[in-house]
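Hi C.,

You asked whether I'd gotten around to modeling the 442-residue construct. I have! Everything is below, sequence then structure, no commentary in between.
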Amino acid sequence: MLPLLALATLLLGLSSGRAWIPGQGVVDAPVGATSGDEPHYLLLVHSLLRDGDLDLGPDHAALAAGEDRAGARFVGVDLDHHTWVVDDARGERALWSELYDWRRPQRCEPGASDCVRWRKLDARLPESSATRVERPAHPPASALVTAALLWPWRDDAAAIERGAVSLSAVWIVATLLATAALAARLGLGGGGQAAAVALLLASPLLAYGHGVFSEPLAALSLTSAAWAWQRERPSLTGALAAFAAAIKPPWALLGLALLAWGWRSDALRRRFAVVWIGGGGLLVLANLWLVGGPVISGQLGWQWVASPMALPATWIDGRHGLLPFVPWAILALPSLLRGGALAVFGPGLAALAALLTVFGSLGEVCFGPRLWLPVLPLLAVAAVDAARAVRASWRPIWRRWLWLCAVWAGAAAAPGVLAWSAAWEQPAYALLRVALRRMLAG
């Protein structure tokens, strides 16, 4: 297993600051925020480090004025705001995306002071109000951890950006270690540990060591919570599960499964409940103080799927669906459904799958199935454990299919590792398409 961890670290290290582009070879690629939510996460980190608060209005103004607060690529850019606009004096609050025409920004020439990039659509929450503030529309838990660890470099914007990416890589390697520890605790042996880690390497998770997203830290929190649960440490499990829910609210569904079915005695269940429910209560109070609502769930809030035809998208979409990128995930089902080592998480994962099925976003403007990433370690361990859950006569072919799926997943994930920024919004068969084009051209 150690060679696999060394390989992961080596791949992240060698590909940092470089990208392999077909036809061009290895080229320099900036380390830092690329697009999507990344500059908004960095903006939140800068607000914590420079201003010591969660009011993002002044940070957006400083960014548009030319300060480096969202990454080197976005200096001077008037970004759309991923914020809640709150005015406690008026008793009003709304998502910035509800107030402004964010889908149709105006093109403003440099120095055009009369040009308004973001046209306001709603008379509520006027910009002239002295009591109006903008609070994050993304849960700030991950940014708080990043800011705390990067405090010594708070005056160096470039170091903050590089540090945020480096921390993502650290969370990924730590998640691989936690996955191996969980597999060992479940009695899967050295081969099982190596297989689970290998499946994660053959997934988009490794590529996110180049980005500035919250999913790597969520993956580490959930995997560590599963390990602590196996060790029958309810307080630690509760704290880790509550922190995962603070990073993204849907992960509370796995904590709920542990609360209902995860403990062999009422005493252990009560200790878990005190910490997990207590942490959830504190989170709700913090959200109420920040934005006036119990949940912070992204710049567009909750979105239903646009039509019944879009329901399978989270599963089969070529760019962000789970199965095109991680086909081995379906092989975890026997373990989760037939009393395997992680079957306690089955109901929580089923509820999460239903939630993502009806959710109107796939986490677009990113690489691969971003919304699924934090549960991939649990699915990897369950897929390896499934070899024990199926009939003995099926096990050889089961293992063969597992490795075939892993080969496909590795090919799908490779562009994200080798060319992170160029791989965004590319389908799972991108590498195969490039190879075929080059073969036909040759």
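If it helps when you're writing up: The first helix runs from residue 2 to 15.

Thanks,
B.
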